[in-house]
Amino acid sequence: xxxxxxxxxxxxxxxxxxxxxxxxxxxxxxxxxxxxxxxxxxxxxxxxxxxxxxxxxxxxxxxxxxxxxxxxxxxxxxxxxxxxxxxxxxxxxxxxxxxxxxxxxxxxxxxxxxxxxxxxxxxxxxxxxxxxxxxxxxxxxxxxxxxxxxxxxxxxxxxxxxxxxxxxxxxxxxxxxxxxxxxxxxxxxxxxx
Length: 193
Fold this sequence. Notes:
This protein has 193 residues and is mainly alpha-helical. The chain has 6 helices and no strands.
């Protein structure tokens, strides 16, 4: 179940980057490998830093040495983090505006700012994953792979199809809400064991 949760978390986190990638792809005259590679590197670097910081923040607590009841309380906190992130992502979909302009290459300055902003979600998600006692190397790897995949797919989807309806981007928030429900069902109520 932990692997399934990690994949859902990674996809939920990467949905913002997917939206930005579609937006970037929709304004390109042509997709250049160099810009796409730099975009992936920038986003993954910020995601990796956020996972590292989230892990370091929670590490001193030593949740694994606590009683089962105290661990359950920490897991409730982890579920609340994912629920809040999912709700915020769904709420913010309505306030994102795009201003299309044709560009010759991906706007790396804009991507850097967006990557830094979306890394905040990843920081809190990584802290919640550490609370859940997930293997943080695997967590970072799954988040990184999902992010790179959705960046590449997003740029090409945007390039081929233009902007998509913004309602599709509620999916990332929805996935994080599902994660919070699964944490409650598995780790707090004891189902799925």
